[in-house]
UniProtKB/TrEMBL annotation:
<dbReference type="InterPro" id="IPR026580">
    <property type="entry name" value="DivIB"/>
</dbReference>
<dbReference type="InterPro" id="IPR005548">
    <property type="entry name" value="Cell_div_FtsQ/DivIB_C"/>
</dbReference>
<comment type="similarity">
    <text>Belongs to the FtsQ/DivIB family. DivIB subfamily.</text>
</comment>
<protein>
    <recommendedName>
        <fullName>Cell division protein DivIB</fullName>
    </recommendedName>
</protein>
<dbReference type="Pfam" id="PF08478">
    <property type="entry name" value="POTRA_1"/>
</dbReference>
<keyword id="KW-0812">Transmembrane</keyword>
<feature type="transmembrane region" description="Helical">
    <location>
        <begin position="54"/>
        <end position="72"/>
    </location>
</feature>
<feature type="domain" description="POTRA">
    <location>
        <begin position="76"/>
        <end position="147"/>
    </location>
</feature>
<keyword id="KW-1003">Cell membrane</keyword>
<keyword id="KW-0472">Membrane</keyword>
<comment type="function">
    <text>Cell division protein that may be involved in stabilizing or promoting the assembly of the division complex.</text>
</comment>
<dbReference type="InterPro" id="IPR034746">
    <property type="entry name" value="POTRA"/>
</dbReference>
<keyword id="KW-1133">Transmembrane helix</keyword>
<dbReference type="Pfam" id="PF03799">
    <property type="entry name" value="FtsQ_DivIB_C"/>
</dbReference>
<dbReference type="InterPro" id="IPR050487">
    <property type="entry name" value="FtsQ_DivIB"/>
</dbReference>
<dbReference type="InterPro" id="IPR013685">
    <property type="entry name" value="POTRA_FtsQ_type"/>
</dbReference>
<keyword id="KW-0131">Cell cycle</keyword>
Length: 278
């Protein structure tokens, strides 16, 4: 029996049409294999895009839900209010003057700080400045800075504090604090300049001034009399007392007993028991 051997045909053995058909089949086969390899990457990209689109919808929604949940919770309303820096004004007085209540949203305070501070200063004349801070979720801290208190003025047997800005506190007391002098017989226009002058005394002397009175003796309408806690009295001119007060301690250190230190023109001491000048 005769055997026949077959061999694969090459492109050189094919007709031009057969070679074109073979090349076309090989191209489609390679393209299908390439597409099959790219399918996993396309699927992963689609999944990534789906998660991204879902996140773009869910994240803002969750943020809005959280915001509205916070706004209706007690944590969004004003809670505890604390005050520091007050000495003339009271902490409760500052809180009442602020107008803040437990129904006020905390978030609005970030835009109302200036208005709250201005309201406190208007209702509490002793307060010069207010700093409002929010700590924690809803703890409000009011840090105040007060005008310097210069002394007291007497009105209808009540003593009212005179502040450095010229304000006289409406609320008066029956007694005075020992660290502030009393200013008597001065007009409203006169009292602030002399009070500021006394406030500028050296601290040791300023704390020893018990009362400042408008004396207006003789031909000098600017004459004043200062009663000291050490038992002495000073007579001076309100226009020059700020510069001449420095001689007071020097004179007192050289004499015995109590008397009057005259700083109006010169600088001398008159004991209470005699009119002799020393």
């Amino acid at each position: 029996m005769r055997r026949f051997h077959f061999r694969s045909r090459t492109t050189t053995d094919m007709t031009p049409w057969e070679a074109y058909q073979a090349k076309r089949r090989n191209h489609h086969s390679a393209k299908r294999r390439q597409q099959a390899l790219q399918l996993p990457a396309v699927s992963a990209l689609r999944r990534h895009n789906q998660w991204r689109n879902l996140a773009l919808v869910l994240v803002p929604l969750l943020v809005l839900l959280g915001f509205f949940g916070y706004m209706v919770s007690p944590a969004a309303k004003v809670g505890q209010i604390s005050v520091t820096g007050e000495s003339v004004a009271t902490a409760q007085g500052v809180i009442d003057a602020s107008g803040l209540t437990e129904t006020d949203p905390v978030l609005t305070l970030f835009f109302r700080r200036a208005a709250v501070a201005q309201r406190i200063k208007q209702r509490q004349p002793a307060v010069a400045a207010v700093q409002l801070r929010v700590t924690g979720f809803n703890h409000i801290h009011l840090k105040v800075r007060e005008h310097a208190a210069l002394g007291y003025v007497e009105k209808q047997n009540r003593y009212h504090l005179l502040m450095a800005d010229g304000a006289v506190l409406a609320s008066g007391t029956a007694t005075t604090a020992t660290n502030y002098p009393i200013f008597s017989d001065f007009t409203a226009k006169q009292v602030l300049p002399i009070a500021r002058t006394v406030h500028g005394f050296p601290a040791e002397i300023r704390r020893a001034v018990s009362e400042v009175r408008a004396a207006k003796g003789g031909a000098n309408p600017y004459r004043i009399s200062l009663t000291m806690t050490d038992g002495n009295r000073i007579v001076a001119d309100s226009r020059t007392i700020g510069k001449r007060i420095k001689y007071y301690r020097e004179i007192i250190a050289q004499v015995k007993g109590h008397g009057t230190v005259d700083l109006e023109v010169g600088a001398y001491f008159t004991p209470n028991s005699t009119t002799t000048k020393k």
